Amino acid sequence: MKLKVVNAGAGSAELELADATFAREFNESLVHQVVTAYMAAGRAGTKAQKTKAEVRGGGRKPHAQKGTGSARAGSIRSPIWVGGGRAFAARPRDYSQKVNRKMYRGALQAMLSELARTGHLVVIPSIELEAPKTKLLAARLKELELGNVLIVVEAFEEKLFLAARNLPSVEVLTVAQLDPVSLARHDKVLATVAALKMLEERLA
User: Fold this and answer.
1) Under 8 Å between Cβ of 22 and 3
2) Which one of 133, 151, 170, 198 has the minimum C-beta count within 10 Å?
3) pTM of this prediction?
C-alpha cells in the first residue's frame, strides 16, 4: 500500500506501508463488535436502587387487615407505595464485553485500510507549531482542507495538544492512545509518517 505524503513546501512523495495493515478488506461486523465493546467498557455500571427489604422503615403493618376500607397492606415500603422499594431494583454491573487482542488489532487494521482506500487518511511528514496557539493549528488545517479531523502523532507534543484543545472538531492522540471509537468519530485522519510507521509495527 502506497500513500501520498502531503508536503506544502516540496510537492508530494509516497510512503509505502504493509498491505496486511493498510490494505485489508473491511470487516463491518468485526468493526461494529469492537467499537460497541470499547464503548460498553467505558460505562460506569454503578446504578443502584433499593428493594423493599433495603428501604428504611415500614417495620409494622400500617393499618388493620379488615374494617378500614383501605386496601390490604403489610408495609408502607411496598413497591406500590410512594417511598417504597423497587420491585426489580437495579444493581451495579459490569458492561464490558470480551474482545481478544487479535480481534481488536483486526478491527483497527480494517478501519485504517478503509480510511486509506477512501482517501480519508492524510499523511504529512510532521506537525510542528511555533507556539501553542489555536490559530496556528487552525490555519494549518485550513491549508490541508481539514475540518472534523483526528490527528495522530508518534509521541506527546505539548504545543500541538494545547493548540488543539479549543477546537471542538479536532482531537489529537498518540499512537499508543489510538482507539476504534476515535477513528470512527471523525471524518478524516491526519497522521505523521513516523506515527504510521509505529502503527504498522504495533498492528503487524
Assistant:
1) yes
2) 133
3) 0.80
